[in-house]
Amino acid sequence: MDLNLAVLIDGDNIPSSYIKEMMEEIAKYGNPTIKRIYGDWTKPDLTKWKKILLENAITPIQQYGYTKGKNATDSAMIIDAMDILYSEKVNGFCLVSSDSDFTRLATRLREAGMKVFGIGEKKTPNPFIVACDKFIYLEILKHEAEENESESIDSKPITKSNIDKITQKDIRLISYTISDLADDDGWAFLGDVGSLLQKKQPNFDSRNYGFQKLTPLIKSIKSFEIEQREATKGRSKLIYVRNKKQNRNKH
């Protein structure tokens, strides 16, 4: 069953140019039943949001800056989040900001049993990222949308200049995760590997490294081997992965 999500956007902190891709991404995880954006709408720099809000049925929440800085917007968003939590109308939140001020809010919502998705730019501080169940970078969504204007690229790399390069640290994370789940022969179901990677590192996303899915990312790394198996029911194939022998000996 789809999650009912409250989408709360820090208007002072997120560029309006990302909104279309962001809403499409959120729809993958649930139904955005509440959509609000916070900011001081008397400021000229927020005027570019107005048309976009109408197109996406997002409710603007006026928050005057009583003091210098953006703490008023943050406070309003946090208060609303807690009101929504206690209303019991949703079972998940999407917090859209690159600001670490929402770290405690994300933690509190998860303590209450909510699923918490974070969306922000790559400059987002790590404490906010790890406080979420899953964190998605806006830059990746923009690149994905640009690529999707051409042909389907499920197994093709995204060729953009600021895609992250896979590091030895990333490879070790994947390798240890496979080992955590492996059977006696070293094989682990790739779906389980992806889920555990997400729990260990909420911003882990194959798109960060230029691949639409986890399978082609794993195939691109020489340290791993992949095996397709027939499913007992249905036509789909199950994908299993393991560390190559020399790597298994290191664990």
| Helix/strand order, N-terminal first | EHEHEHEHEHEHHEHHEEH
How do the strands of the widest beta sheet line up side by side? 3-2-1-4-5-6
> What is the average of the pLDDT values?
85
* Distance separating the two termini: 38 Å
How many helices in DSSP terms?
Answer: 10
Calculate Rg over CA atoms: 20 Å
- Residue windows where pLDDT falls under 50 for at least 5 positions: 149-159
Silhouette = elongated
Q: What structural class results from the helix and strand content?
A: alpha/beta
Beta-strand level of the residues, as a percent range? 15-25%
Number of strands: 9
Q: Major β-sheet, in short?
A: 6 strands, parallel
Please estimate the helix content: 25-40%
Structural overview:
The two termini are 38 Å apart. Helix 7 packs across helix 8. The protein has helices at 19-27, 49-56, 71-87, 103-111, 126-131, 138-148, 168-181, 190-200, 214-219, 245-248, and strands at 3-10, 30-39, 59-62, 92-96, 115-120, 134-137, 188-189, 224-230, 237-243. The strands form two sheets. The chain has a six-stranded parallel beta sheet, with helices on both faces. The chain is an alpha/beta fold and 251 residues long. Helices cover 38% and strands 21% of the residues. The radius of gyration is 20 Å and the shape is elongated. 33% of the residues are buried.
